């Protein structure tokens, strides 16, 4: 078809998703161009790619004809400073979003894009104070698998029309369609920030929360045994609160974070896990000697597992503690025989949603939980 001929190129050796090579790659430059591409690709299995920082997360696709690369769908569409709102195209790297005195409080790996961050539902250390992707996302534009453009939410924080569509696409791993634009709520850029780092047990995170010092993040690293607290605000307020926390947990105040802050606790090519437990159970989770790192303030942590036995042990521990665990990525020999997602409530409903949005199961086929 002319549209496919105009917009696609033959895949190269590195155009691979989870070890599965693509046949074609397309990089549309707008929502309209992407819609035309998807309408013309109705017989093709599709995977969406942003910067590729998390392209190996999830299960490899059952089949892959076309990679839609979003790097040309980029840039800030609008910044309504008075309303604390911005509209950003999906292929925009998070690090490229400069909004002056305001900030989009999403953390991600170097190069991570807006669309990829929403599609995987990833949030970094500052989730404690600012909320995660679902909390910050107030509007979304997507191209459905049938090529139709759909919009939900709006550019005003109080506008909740169609809000659930944004939540539905958050963490959907590209199985429901292509995200092209996102509207986010913003926050004033902090004038100052400092970190308090202490050799302290994760249980001390509760003392920090109870001290009413409004931490932006509370992170723990089991390898070093360090608890680190981020404080943001005015220079005077940051200084006072930092000293209070330092006295409380016996730490030191620093201008920058410890070296492990925001760094994945697994080696390249290793088994990566996301662990979620109630706050009161974080100490029980990290006391097992595993390389665990993450938020002692929200109960979302990450771990590197040595093998399948350790995956199952960590997963069982999380379940006993009232939480859950998923494998984000793993080397092929492990991934091919491992249940990456584990037990997930509501799977039948998720299947029905997939059938409604993508009856042909063309978008990221098999990448998500339960083979969705």
From TrEMBL:
PROSITE patterns for this protein: FAD_PCMH
Origin: domain of life: Bacteria
Keyword terms, alphabetized: FAD, Flavoprotein
Pfam families (UniProt xref): FAD_binding_4 (PF01565)
InterPro entries linked: FAD-bd_PCMH, FAD-bd_PCMH-like_sf, FAD-bd_PCMH_sub2, FAD-linked_Oxase-like_C, Oxid_FAD_bind_N
FAD-binding PCMH-type domain ranges (all copies): 17-189
Protein name: FAD-binding oxidoreductase
Native organism: Paractinoplanes rhizophilus
